[in-house]
Amino acid sequence: METRWLTDEERVAWVRLAAVLELLPGVLDTQLRRDADLSHFEYFVLAMLSEAPERTLRMTSLAVRTNATLPRLSHVVRRLEDRGLVRRFPCPEDGRATNAQLTDAGWTTVVAAAPGHVSNVRQQVLDALGSDTRLVDVRSPQEFSGELIAMAGYEQEGAQRSGHIPSAISVPWAQAVNEDGSFKSADDLRELYASKGVIANGNPVVAYCRIGERSAHTWFVLHELLGLDDVVNYDGSWTEWGNLVDVPIQKDV
Asked: Which residues form the catalytic set?
């Protein structure tokens, strides 16, 4: 099978998209390392455990919630164990499984780290909810309203809470394509996003979904097809926001 190499235009678009996907995690990681001596992923692990019943999850469930492979998760949990923030023990219900539990020291650490992290998320992702930034939720209407915690087939990989970020505008990603999967015309796309209030006087736009995949599609439409300069894909998306401590969430059900 002949390889379909990227054209110069496609390569530029891909490099730009890759840069957006990589930018936000680094910003979040830098702040947490500086202020809490934690990587972003380490904080994410602690936050997931802090939300779980008895602050305990099976390692397999924790891997799903943190979008990590078991080897990567085990390596990070071992480091957290060495710091006394997490402990592991055999699962009482299944001797073949291992549980991870947040210790008192781990709870103290994540509670202390949360305010700075949330402040950084607000500043870097939303540029303050009351600003001119347009926040577009590209998930299904059911996910947006809070009726579903994740799209069908991915219920075990959802966040702790359902709903959407306050002030977000619901524009499902699939509205940008025709029935055959091709993109709609530029005029139709511009009318779609303008009618929803996403495109307005050059305002910055932040797109999000569950884990940043569907919103990457919307980022491409807005940035590459419609030529908007100030568009960002929120890489952590709802999986991160719906698991954060003390952040606002809105439901319509």
From this structure: 209
What the block records as the tokens of 136 is 């577009």
Query: To the nearest whole number, what is the mean pLDDT of the chain?
Result: 87
Q: Where are the beta strands (DSSP E) in the chain?
A: 56-58, 86-91, 94-102, 134-137, 169-170, 205-208, 231-233
Is residue 237 predicted with pLDDT exceeding 90?
Answer: no
pLDDT digits (tens, 9 = 90+) for 129-140: 445 778 899 999
Q: Domains in the chain, start-ordered, CATH in brackets?
A: 6-126 (1.10.10.10), 128-253 (3.40.250.10)
pLDDT tens figures, 168-179: 899 999 999 999
Q: Please state the length of the chain.
A: 253
Specify the DSSP element, H or E, that contains 110.
helix 104-121
- Give the strands of the sheet with 169-170, arranged side by side: 169-170, 134-137, 205-208, 231-233
pLDDT in tens, 81-120: 999 999 999 999 888 899 999 999 999 999 999 999 988 8
Determine the Cα–Cα distance for residues 224 and 231; give it in Å rounded to an integer. 10
